[in-house]
Amino acid sequence: METVAVLGGGKIGEALLGGLVAAGRAPGELLVVEAVATRAAELGERYGIGAVDAAEAARRADVLVVAVKPGDVPAALDQVHDVLAGRRPDGDRPTVVSLAAGIPTASLEARLPADTAVVRVMPNTPMLVGRAMCVLSPGAAAGEVELALTEGLLAAVGRTVRVPESQQDLATALSGSGPAYVFLLAEAMIDAGVALGMPRATATELVTATVEGAGGLLTTPGSDGREGVAPHPGLLREAVTSPGGTTAAALGTLEAEGLRTALARAVAAARDRSVALGRQDG
Ligand SMILES: NC(=O)C1=CN([C@@H]2O[C@H](COP(=O)(O)OP(=O)(O)OC[C@H]3O[C@@H](n4cnc5c(N)ncnc54)[C@H](O)[C@@H]3O)[C@@H](O)[C@H]2O)C=CC1
Ligand SMILES: O=C(O)[C@@H]1CCC=N1
């Protein structure tokens, strides 16, 4: 198997490394470059992954994953540039896989040796439990080989989909940030249950099982009574909504309070922020 080096062992770096280990990848094939020594040690203890410096990662990696904050990407790429320049671009040089929100492949390529294969990916944190949604777009020098290599790696930790790079900022707003919207919804539901008198542990069990079960229905073909097409959220919602019943009362309140509009605005705000992060780097 190829050696994967991750620059940045923070939340998403850990989700990838931990997810790969959980999927059976040998820790010896995984490397992390982490600026904070205590954090690197923590990852070593937790997953048995070796910490190296940027130059060593650039020397040994077949896939070099950039998982630092968008503003730290230029410095991180500068640290590996010269070693990468010493490796031939025709198969010896690693594929650079960027997980950074907003940063276009053209900006990444401009800070890397000419002809480096770059794949821009927007992952999400369910990667840690093998349930990621990873959205991929190739850079100018990334062909089918590099895309397939990246997909093969990420398939171990969830699902992958290719999109034109013009849709990456919107993908970031939907699936990259999306888990946070679901967690906020869960938190708010639990708090509402507690406010109305249910013990927190019970409310938490009810809500988390409900989110998991609803996710299962959304992703199980045929769950809305139709065969051969992806389940429609509206049909699943209708099946819960008895005429004159409790769900209709709740949904009427949510619509009146503007939940749908709030979500549309939230996704647009996240998309715009992703675009702005890319401009700041440029
Ligand atoms: N957290 C999330 O849900 C997602 C994050 N991302 C992207 O992943 C990237 C990282 O985000 P997080 O993991 O949340 O941030 P984080 O702040 O948790 O992790 C970044 C890590 O990189 C380290 N670091 C910074 N510069 C470094 C360098 N030059 N060399 C080595 N290590 C360095 C920091 O010490 C830190 O541990 C961002 O670009 C973000 O846009 C993408 C999808 C989802
Ligand atoms: O909040 C962020 O900027 C990152 C990108 C997607 C999820 N977390």
- Describe the strand arrangement of the main beta sheet, using strand numbers: 3-2-1-4-5-6-7-8
Q: What is the alpha-carbon Rg in Å?
A: 21 Å
The third-level CATH topology of the largest domain is: Rossmann fold
Number of strands: 8
Number of helices: 12
Which CATH class of the largest domain is shown? Alpha Beta
Overall number of domains: 2
Question: What letter string, H or E per element, gives the SSE order?
Answer: EHEHEHEHEHEEHEHHHHHH
User: In percent, how much strand structure appears in the residues?
Assistant: 5-15%
Question: What is the global morphology?
Answer: elongated
Q: Identify the CATH homologous superfamily of the largest domain.
A: NAD(P)-binding Rossmann-like Domain
Small molecules bound: 1,4-dihydronicotinamide adenine dinucleotide, (2S)-3,4-dihydro-2H-pyrrole-2-carboxylic acid
What would CATH call the architecture of the largest domain?
A: 3-Layer(aba) Sandwich
Structural class: alpha/beta
Whole-number mean pLDDT = 96
State the major sheet: 8 strands, mixed
C-alpha end-to-end distance? 35 Å
Relative helix content: 40-55%
Detail the poorly predicted runs.
none
GO molecular function: pyrroline-5-carboxylate reductase activity
Family: Belongs to the pyrroline-5-carboxylate reductase family.
Pfam family, one: P5CR_dimer
Domain Pyrroline-5-carboxylate reductase dimerisation: 165-275
